[in-house]
Amino acid sequence: MTGTLMPAFEPWDVLKIPFPYHALPVLEYRPVLVVAAGRLEAAHGLAWVLMITSATNASWPADVPITDLRSAGLPTASVVRCAKIATIATTEAQKIGVLLRPAERAAVARNLAGAVAPATGRQTND
Fold first, then answer.
1. Nearest to 9 by CA among 47, 44, 43
2. How many domains is the chain built from?
């Protein structure tokens, strides 16, 4: 991608993005949480996102429950799955909400920092 795009998304935005469904030739829209966009989106049309999944699924150690479902635009109890980060093209992404609660943002940031600390050379208290 060349040129500069106007960023549409910011950290803490909740988006719905199309995912191919493994068993059928259709797309299923899934929620994700933006953790980086800005310059990344402006330069390349990309964002880094974390998976959001149903709270009824088996929990993982770094999951963060979302308590304000209405602001996040989610219809059912959900968690941010901090262990599942992806780079997505933002062209087909749609904003559906935002993660507002400071405690949830702090937990996501802490879990994400702990996961990437070895690659950045930074220490964590984990």
1. 47
2. 1
Write out pLDDT tens, residues 21-61.
Answer: 666 677 789 999 999 999 999 999 999 999 999 999 999 99
Taking the model in full, what pTM does it have?
0.87
Q: Is the dihedral of CA 61, 71, 100, 67 positive or negative?
A: negative
List, as one string, the DSSP characters of 13-50. EEEEEEEE-TTSSSEEEEEEEEEE-HHHHHHHSEEEEE
Please, which residues have CB within 8 angstroms of residue 23's CB and are 6 or more apart in sequence?
none
Residue 109 belongs to domain with CATH number: 2.30.30.110
> Residues 9-18: what's their mean pLDDT?
96
CA distances from 94 to 17, 82, 116 (A): 7, 20, 27
Q: Is the pLDDT of residue 92 over 60?
A: yes
Planar angle of CA 19, 23, 25, nearest 5 degrees: 65
* Three-state secondary-structure class, residue 109: helix
In a domain, 24, yes or no: yes
